[in-house]
């Protein structure tokens, strides 16, 4: 049984360097901040853009929307550093496993709560802080 269990266990790369958050490309456009590579960052994180946008809005304290070119437009002026810090906070809460630190996770909803399920180690944790 042990051999069968080991065969069914997914291989986990033990490198912590496997997850490298891409740098956000932001620019100012009037009184708005345009997050140019928003869609590609969401794809890298493997998360729904609306979910990421809602977190960004809460984190920087502004309103935002996704425009027709799949860019995030945040009301107000925010630098690259501030947007990156918000993305890092998102990754810590909604992407990286709290047990093994790997990004092989998915968000599941159970009884109205968001649960982070790790596909690598099987850990489950609440996303609420």
Describe the structure.
This protein has helices at residues 2-8, 38-45, 49-60, 80-94; strands at residues 26-29, 32-35, 64-66, 72-75, 105-110, 113-118, 124-126. α3 (49-60) packs across α4 (80-94). The protein is elongated, with a radius of gyration of 17 Å. The mean pLDDT is 89. The protein has a 4-stranded antiparallel β-sheet, with helices on one face. It has a 3-stranded antiparallel β-sheet with strand order 5-6-7, with no helix packed on it. The protein has 129 residues and is α+β, with helices and mostly antiparallel strands. The protein is built from 4 helices and 7 strands; from the N terminus they run αββααββαβββ.
Strand tally is 7
Order of helices and strands: HEEHHEEHEEE
Low-confidence stretches: none
- Structural category is alpha+beta
Gyration radius (Cα, Å) is 17 Å
State the end-to-end CA separation.
39 Å
The largest sheet has its strands arranged as 1-2-4-3
Number of H/I helices: 4
Helix content class: 25-40%
- Summarize model confidence as the mean pLDDT: 89
Profile the largest sheet.
Answer: 4 strands, antiparallel
List the helices and strands and how they pair.
Elements: H1 2-8, E1 26-29, E2 32-35, H2 38-45, H3 49-60, E3 64-66, E4 72-75, H4 80-94, E5 105-110, E6 113-118, E7 124-126
Helix pairs in contact: 3-4
Summarize the structure in short.
With 129 residues, the chain is an alpha+beta fold.
